[in-house]
Amino acid sequence: MADNAPVLKAVVPAAGLGTRFLPATKATPKEMLPIVDKPAIQYVVEEAVDAGLTDVLMITGRNKRSIEDHFDRAYELEEALDAKGDAERLAAVRESADLAIMHYVRQGEPKGLGHAVYCARQHVGREPFAVLLGDDLIDARDDLLRRMIEVRQRYGGSVVALMEVEPEQVSAYGSAAIEATDEEDVVRITDLVEKPPSGEAPSNWIIIGRYVCDAAVFDVLEKTPPGRGGEIQLTDALRTLAETPADQGGGVYGVKFRGRRYDTGNKLEYLRTVVMFASEREDLSAEFLAWLRDFCAERGGAGNG
């Protein structure tokens, strides 16, 4: 029988060093890099709120203070904008502070995603909770997280988001062995492999950065030894839960996601994301796309110049 406890809390790991974006991330958290004019981390919090999760715990580390400042009130800035009568920018500044009830805890040591999630145990308690990774942005028009919560309420256990990729891409992600259920977009997961060697993945379905976890994951993470890369892997804990009886919080399910996902984890994908977001902005798209077409024409097409 499924555990129908509501999912009310979101955990957002944001303690990484962002080394792929140095020197920009020497003093600025990678999560605060802008997608046009809004930091990437705000899109993630907005997604949680849109799915009904207004209690958000951010797992941070050193040099992440600006994340806390972003989701706090900025009274001097607000007063200056108010005095200028700039209502549009004033609303944008206040929006981030009014999004959710924000909490923060420091990871302390970079021991991996599993350890970051484990740091949330006191705040979450024995409730199911969502985990949203900041490198993955899900288009606001796609209700992935809400669907995952529905699946958790029906089946119990934990739920991960899956996307199908080309075979040569699988080794960069965690891969899932899956069994069909009576719902086309829902599968039962029988095994998980973190970054499998080329040709050894159980399927072409990879885990992307959205999870709905049963609280039993904390008990498993406490006993999970460091895995790939010497870090405590959330994937390893979920593999254990996939083999755990349902009455002990076990069972892992996957939601096959075929919507729009934007990757901001490396420079090339980050730039693509900025271009795609700018191309859909009503206030920017016409002028930006016209310039982009001219720019590409001048460069002679992709791969030249």
From TrEMBL:
Q: Which UniProt keywords apply?
A: Nucleotidyltransferase, Transferase
Report the catalytic activity: alpha-D-glucose 1-phosphate + UTP + H(+) = UDP-alpha-D-glucose + diphosphate
- Gene name for this UniProt entry: galU
Boundaries of every Nucleotidyl transferase domain copy: 9-267
Q: What is this protein called?
A: UTP--glucose-1-phosphate uridylyltransferase
What EC number(s) does this enzyme carry?
2.7.7.9
**Biological process (GO) annotations?**
UDP-alpha-D-glucose metabolic process
An example Pfam family from this entry, by short name, is NTP_transferase
Entry's family note? Belongs to the UDPGP type 2 family.
One example GO MF annotation: UTP:glucose-1-phosphate uridylyltransferase activity
